[in-house]
Design brief:
Layout lengths: L14 E9 L2 E15 L4 E7 L8 H9 L4 E8 L16 E11 L2 E12 L8 E2 L2 E2 L3 E9 L6 H4 L7 E12 L10
Parallel strand pairs: 2-10
Antiparallel strand pairs: 1-2, 1-10, 2-3, 3-4, 4-5, 5-6, 6-9, 7-8, 9-10
Length: about 190
């Protein structure tokens, strides 16, 4: 899935995200297909942005609440990422890299430290993750983190939201920060 998300800029590859929680003893499985992941090689950081208007829960009350929120970014994760270790020797895509890291998670205008885990790999045909000794983009990623809604006062916005929220990007794309791309790190 590829799309131009910003006029007059480099195309960014969006990723799908699954969001899972329990509300009133019922599992809610939400999704968004326009999440952006980006790495800054100069600072060895990763950023993840999930726009609030792209989240669909299937719960009319919750979907309406999400649409009424003023802040267009529902979730913003920014943290360390060992980009310098992304050298793969296997040209058959038989290797992957597992990472866990610390990040700053911002939701509802509140920022807290957050742990995350991820696996980085590449599904391109028969090539590794480097081209001419440079990391080839977009890389593929599975990324996971979870948080408690009360730490971000989400339970004040929607009282039934009291259980943990799990967020997973599966088969996502990592975009490289460049001079022509939007900058999630600002």
């Amino acid at each position: 899935m590829c799309g131009v998300l910003y006029p007059q800029t480099q195309s960014l590859y969006p990723s799908a995200v699954k969001i899972e929680t329990e509300i009133n003893k019922k599992m809610i499985n939400a999704h968004s297909s326009s999440t952006i992941l980006q790495v800054n090689e100069a600072t060895s950081e990763i950023a993840v942005r999930i726009d609030i208007f792209s989240i669909k829960t299937g719960n009319d009350t919750l979907d309406t609440l999400l649409q009424k929120l003023n802040n267009t970014t529902a979730v913003f994760l920014k943290g360390n990422f060992p980009i310098k270790n992304l050298s793969f020797v296997s040209k058959n895509n038989e290797e992957q890299r597992d990472y866990s890291g610390k990040a700053q998670l911002t939701i509802n205008g509140i920022t807290k430290e957050q742990d995350y885990t991820c696996v980085v790999y590449n599904l391109r045909e028969n090539d590794g993750l480097t081209e001419n000794n440079n990391t080839a983009y977009p890389l593929n990623i599975n990324l996971f983190f979870e948080f408690e809604p009360e730490k971000f006062k989400l339970n004040e916005l929607f009282k039934p939201l009291m259980n943990g929220v799990k967020i997973e990007v599966a088969n996502g794309f990592i975009n490289k920060l460049s001079a022509n791309s939007p900058n999630l790190f600002k």
